[in-house]
Design a protein that fits this description.
single chain; 246 residues; alpha/beta; Rossmann fold; seven-stranded parallel sheet; two-stranded parallel ribbon; 20% strand; NAD(P)-bd_dom_sf; dTDP-glucose 4,6-dehydratase; aldehyde dehydrogenase (NAD+) activity; NAD(P)-dependent_oxidoreduct
Length: 246
């Protein structure tokens, strides 16, 4: 049975709207590293806490007084996460959703992969969500290449996911109680960089990026979400990247 208290570590581009969405059904605590966000968080009927992975204070134990923890911060501070795990093991947290990245698939020495493994070694129920490149709501790939910066590997397929799907997937994991899993979370369409970035620019009236004319066949890996779709019976909200409106 899913209980009703969730702590969300990280209140940025994904964490804040995630907390907003979950607060419709759960009691939510949300961490931030600055008091400037407190009023904004409280306005959503969410309880704010100051938590900094680089310097965990006494607030962390109150923040972890929940049933489920969602970890959604970009930090790769391994020592900080080791300290965080100590606090988690002394808390009421029973289940964890850890937001990771598909970047770990191509780098076995990634600090993020090491952090994933730290959590896997605990006796907690944890589901790791490896998100692809994050897009939507201000994150338009056509903006990734300012001032004439050249796009390389133009024929390589893109692996992306919209924020709406990220939030929906996290919600599904929690509501369905799907834990002790690792999922790659990637939109099922994979246009080339040239196709997708050109589309992103045109639909947003932005300059079309400059594309490298040299052919590079080295990076054509498509990451699929087959296990996610199977286990969660998941249907993507934005399943065609070439139809996304920015």
């Amino acid at each position: 049975m899913i209980k009703n208290s969730i702590s969300v570590l990280g209140s940025g581009w994904l964490g804040f709207p995630l907390a907003q969405s979950l607060s419709k059904e759960f009691s939510i605590k949300l961490s931030t590293t600055t008091y400037k966000k407190f009023d904004k968080i409280k306005d959503e009927n969410i309880t704010p806490f100051i938590v900094d992975i680089n310097n965990l204070s006494g607030e962390i134990d109150k923040f972890l007084s929940s049933d489920i923890l969602i970890i959604n911060i970009p930090s790769k501070n391994i020592d900080g996460f080791k300290e965080l795990i100590k606090h988690i093991l002394n808390s009421s947290i029973q289940k964890i959703v850890f937001i990771s990245s598909i970047s770990v698939l191509k780098d076995e020495t990634s600090p993020l992969l090491e952090i994933e493994n730290l959590f896997k070694k605990t006796n907690l129920e944890i589901t790791i969500l490896r998100f692809a490149g994050l897009i939507g709501y201000g994150r338009n790939p056509a903006k990734f290449f300012p001032n004439g910066k050249v796009v390389k590997d133009v024929n390589a397929p893109v692996n992306m996911i919209h924020r709406d799907d990220c939030i929906n997937i996290i919600g599904n994991v929690i509501k369905q109680g799907i834990f002790d899993e690792t999922f790659n979370c990637v939109t099922p369409s994979h246009p080339t960089k040239k196709e997708f970035y050109t589309y992103c620019a045109k639909v947003s009236d932005l300059p079309i990026p400059t594309f490298d004319s040299l052919k590079n066949e080295s990076n054509k890996k498509i990451v699929k979400s087959d296990l996610l779709v199977l286990k969660l019976n998941y249907k993507f909200i934005h399943e065609d990247l070439m139809k996304i409106v920015f």
